[in-house]
Design a protein that fits this description.
The protein is 65% helix and 2% strand. The chain has 405 residues and is mainly α. It folds into 2 domains: 3-325, no CATH class; 337-388, no CATH class. Strands 1-2 form a two-stranded antiparallel ribbon. A hairpin with a 2-residue loop joins strand 1 and strand 2.
């Protein structure tokens, strides 16, 4: 079933098909690595401009080779291994964070014409194929599964170090990632209800006529996805896993050299991948106007990368603008706001689908649904306020007497 999802395998597997597959894997891997290197430079330069600093300016033109210089430096630094560490798990943990990022990018269509009923395929070596490494029928479920596997890399990195400080950082990071993954999954479920498919190419094809899911789902799932995705990436203002005023350095305190670089690489790779997934789910993927017919194949790729670049700019902008949350604020936002909002909106979209199928008046369903959401929000807010007041002990006469004494 997975092979049948890509028309490349319709006529069986031969040498030419294997060459196309290897070519797509190699190009995707090289593209992601180069994008990470440029993204690190882009973030440092952009934050330098926002904070009235110069930023990288020595290594290469405009400092563009500074990331390469940092990578070479990390590669040749001493690789430390703590005495109390679990050696096997300590070495494995960085790869559990890095590999899911690349595998997630493999299901993202970065080009192809999906307009006017086209299937988005292009011709490579005489074979028709999609401009993505793989298109499994359950691609979005694969994305959620891989994001869950990345949690193990963070948790095992802190646990295997044999030190309490990385363990505290990994527990905090794991709690944060698991908390926001629920809201992330519910926002994606709204896209599934609208698109009717879990295939990434199918979701993009459903947005080919400017019917982007950001509007079709009512904007709210998109906003939830952006906030929850930022928290999943441990990006500011949700970078509590590296809060230096509370932790020594987070789950990777004991890592150095190339193993630390792998965590650093995984963080930026995940940022690019999450941006690509957001563009695929909500902003039409590579869909966009064909301005010049002579190079029609290039425009979808260009629109895709421009949309991803807009997301990456937003991530950097948030980092340069917003202060870091407190941990209680982080958990309150995830459990008390994002999950109820995304769940309620998911139920509203499901009710609208049922109304369309059965011929019910849509306006009435929307009105009843909004009233139910408002009532649920009021009840939840009241319960949260009551629980908060119960946690704060009242200052009685005995307490005042104790203070005076």
């Amino acid at each position: 079933m997975v092979l049948a999802a890509d028309p490349l395998f319709d006529a069986g597997v031969d040498g030419r098909v294997l060459v196309v597959v290897l070519l797509k894997v190699g190009v995707a891997f090289a593209l992601l690595l180069v994008a990470v290197m440029l993204m690190i430079w882009f973030e440092r330069k952009l934050i330098g401009d926002m904070q009235n600093r110069i930023g990288p300016a020595v290594a290469g033109p405009w400092g563009i080779l500074q990331t390469l210089a940092d990578g070479i430096k990390l590669f040749f630094k001493e690789d430390l291994l703590p005495d109390q560490a679990d050696r096997t798990v300590f070495r494995l943990a960085p790869y559990l964070s890095l590999v899911p990022a690349f595998l997630t990018f493999a299901i993202v269509p970065i080009g192809g014409n999906f307009t006017d009923g086209a299937d988005g395929t292009v011709s490579l070596l005489g074979r028709r194929t999609l401009l993505q490494v793989a298109d499994p029928p359950v691609g979005i479920l694969l994305f959620l599964a891989l994001s869950s596997i990345a949690v193990y890399g963070v948790m095992l990195a802190g646990w295997s170090s044999g030190s309490k400080y990385p363990l505290l950082g990994s527990v905090r990071a794991t709690a944060q990632m698991i908390s926001y993954e629920a809201a992330l999954g519910l926002s994606i479920a709204s896209v599934f209800l609208v698109s009717g498919t879990l295939s990434t190419s199918g979701i993009v094809a459903g947005q080919a006529t400017w019917n982007w899911n950001v509007a079709a789902t009512g904007v709210v799932p998109f906003l939830v996805f952006v906030v929850a995705g930022t928290a999943e990436l441990n990006r500011p203002p949700f970078d509590l896993v590296e809060a230096e005023q509370e932790l020594v350095g987070g789950f990777h305190t004991e890592y150095s050299s190339i193993r630390f670089a792998l965590f650093y690489l995984a963080e930026f790779m995940n940022m690019i991948t999450m941006s690509a997934i957001a563009v695929t789910l909500f902003l039409g993927g590579p869909n966009g106007p064909i301005l010049i017919d002579g190079i029609a194949w290039m425009w979808p790729i260009l629109w895709f990368f421009l949309k991803v670049l807009a997301f990456l700019f937003t991530f950097v902008w948030l980092r340069a603008t917003l202060p870091r949350f407190r941990y209680d604020q982080l958990m309150d936002l995830g459990w008390k706001v994002l999950i109820p909002v995304s769940l309620g909106w998911f139920l509203l979209i499901a009710a609208l689908n049922v109304a369309r199928d059965r011929g019910w008046p849509v306006i009435v369903v929307v009105a009843v649904g909004m009233l139910a959401l408002l009532a649920g929000s009021a009840l939840l807010s009241g319960a949260i306020a009551k629980a908060g007041s119960a946690e704060r002990p009242a200052v009685g006469s005995d307490d005042r007497e104790g203070l005076h004494s």
